[in-house]
Specification:
The protein has helices at residues 11-22, 51-64, 74-90, 97-116, 158-161, 173-182, 204-212; strands spanning 2-6, 26-33, 68-72, 121-123, 129-133, 136-140, 164-165, 217-221, 226-230, 257-262, 267-271, 277-288, 296-302, 309-317, 320-330, 337-342, 345-356. α1 packs parallel to α2 (51-64). The chain is globular and about 65 Å long. It is an alpha/beta fold. A 6-stranded antiparallel beta barrel has the order 12-15-14-13-16-17. A 5-stranded parallel β-sheet has the order 3-2-1-4-7, with helices on both faces. It is built from 7 helices and 17 strands. It catalyses: S-sulfanyl-L-cysteinyl-[protein] + uridine(34) in tRNA + AH2 + ATP = 2-thiouridine(34) in tRNA + L-cysteinyl-[protein] + A + AMP + diphosphate + H(+). This is tRNA-specific 2-thiouridylase MnmA. Its EC number is 2.8.1.13. It comes from Flexivirga caeni.
C-alpha cells in the first residue's frame, strides 16, 4: 500500500512510520504545519508543531529512508479546531480539541488529501488497535491502558477506519521508547506533548481571556446569592473547584464546585460536591465506528480521556444519543464527548449537550 505517515516530530509517530516501512508499505512522511506562527523552539513538553518538531520529524524520515513533506493546514486547523474551541467555551461548554482535530484534520483534511493524491491510507502514532471483524474493520483499545487513545479516535467512521493504520496499539510506551533508541532515533527520549497543543503554557483561562477579553460577572450559589466575582464565565467548567476566589464561604465550611455555567447571563453557579453527580446524558453529533446501533445497547461509557468506564445503556436516534449510566459520574460538562464501548471495541461517540440526575442511581 501507499501510505502517508503523519509525523509530529515525537517518538510515537517516528516508530509508527518505521514500522510501516518494515511492513513493506510505500511510505511518505508528512508533518502537518498547524500553527500560523510556529515557535522556533519548544518551550515545554506541552506544545507541539514547532519548527523544532518539524526538524525532528525530517531527521527520522531521513534515517528511515522515506520522502518527507510539510503540509500547511494552519488555516484549516484555526477554523475547525481553534475557533471551535473558543466558540464552545463562549457557549458555556467544555470541548475536547483533540477529538475535533482527529475528526476534522488528521482523518478528514489529511486523509482526504492523501486519498486524492493516490495514497491508500494514513498511519499515525496513536495508541489504539484496528481489528478485522465480521462487519469490517473495528477500532479497539490499545494493550497499554495508560496510553490508550481510543477515546480521542471515537469520532472516526467506518470509511475512515478502512484507510487508517495505528501500528503502536499492541505495544507499551516504554517498549516504544526502547525501540526508538535501538533504531537510533534522536527523539527516543523526547518528552511527550500533552494537554492542549495550541496553548503551550497550559493556561487555558489566560489564553481564553486574551482572546475574548475580560467579561466581569457574578458567581452565585444555588440559592442565587452572590458569593464571588469572575472575569469571564467562559473560563469555568463544571466540576471545577480551584481558582474560584469566592468571597462568601458556606456556613458549614463545605467546599464548593462549579455546577453550572450560564453564558447568557454571564453567571457561574457553584454548589456542593453532591450536586455534581449525574447519570443521564443527552448527546448529539453522533459518530459511529461501524453500523449505527439499533434499539437499546449495553455499553461502557467513557466521559473523558483516560477516565473510567461506566456501565450504561445507550439509545441512538439519527445523530443523537441518550445514555443512562448504571451509577453516577461527577463533573460531567456539556461539550465533553461520551465514547461508547462494547468490551474493547469502540462503538462510537457523541458530544454531550445536557445532563440529568435521577433519584434512583447510586454514586
Amino acid at each position: 500500500m501507499r501510505v502517508v505517515a503523519a509525523m509530529s516530530g515525537g517518538v510515537d509517530s517516528a516508530v509508527a512510520a518505521a514500522r510501516m516501512v518494515d511492513a513493506g508499505h510505500e511510505v511518505v512522511g508528512v508533518h502537518l504545519a498547524l500553527s500560523q506562527s510556529a515557535a522556533t523552539l519548544r518551550e515545554s513538553a506541552r506544545g507541539c508543531c514547532t519548527i523544532e518538531d518539524a526538524g525532528d520529524a525530517r531527521r527520522v524520515a531521513d534515517k528511515v529512508g522515506i520522502p518527507f513533506y510539510v503540509w500547511d493546514m494552519a488555516q484549516r486547523f484555526k477554523e475547525d479546531v481553534v475557533e471551535d474551541f473558543v466558540a464552545e467555551y463562549t457557549a458555556g461548554r467544555t470541548p475536547n480539541p483533540c477529538l475535533r482535530c482527529n475528526e476534522r484534520i488528521k482523518f478528514a483534511a489529511l486523509l482526504d488529501k492523501a486519498l486524492a493524491l493516490g495514497f491508500d491510507a494514513v498511519a499515525t502514532g496513536h495508541y489504539a488497535q484496528i481489528v478485522d471483524g465480521p462487519g469490517g474493520r473495528e477500532l479497539h483499545r490499545a494493550v497499554d491502558p495508560a496510553k490508550d487513545q481510543s477515546y480521542v479516535l471515537g469520532v472516526l467512521d467506518a470509511d475512515q477506519l478502512a484507510h487508517s493504520f495505528f501500528p503502536l496499539g499492541d505495544t507499551t510506551k516504554p517498549q516504544i521508547r526502547q525501540e526508538a533508541a535501538e533504531r537510533g532515533f534522536s527523539v527516543a527520549k523526547k518528552p511527550d506533548s500533552h494537554d492542549i497543543c495550541f496553548i503551550a503554557d497550559g493556561d487555558t483561562k489566560g489564553w481564553l481571556t486574551r482572546r475574548l477579553g475580560e467579561q466581569p460577572g457574578d458567581i452565585v450559589d444555588t440559592e442565587g446569592e452572590v458569593v464571588g466575582q469572575h472575569q469571564g464565565a467562559f473560563a469555568y467548567t463544571v466540576g471545577q473547584r480551584r481558582g474560584l476566589g469566592l468571597k462568601v464561604p458556606r456556613a458549614d465550611g463545605a467546599k464548593r464546585y462549579v455546577v453550572d455555567v450560564q453564558p447568557r447571563t454571564n453567571t457561574v453557579v457553584v454548589g456542593t460536591q453532591d450536586l455534581l453527580g449525574i447519570d443521564i446524558l443527552a448527546a448529539d453529533h453522533a459518530r459511529w465506528c461501524g453500523p449505527v446501533p439499533v434499539g437499546e445497547l449495553r455499553v461502557g461509557a467513557q466521559l473523558r480521556a483516560h477516565g473510567e468506564e461506566f456501565a450504561a445503556v445507550a439509545v441512538a436516534e439519527d445523530d443523537r444519543v441518550s445514555v443512562r449510566l448504571d451509577r453516577r459520574a461527577r463533573g460531567v460538562a456539556p461539550g465533553q464527548s461520551v465514547v461508547l464501548y462494547d468490551g474493547t471495541r469502540v462503538v462510537g461517540s457523541a458530544t454531550i449537550t445536557s445532563t440529568e440526575r435521577s433519584r434512583t442511581a447510586q454514586g
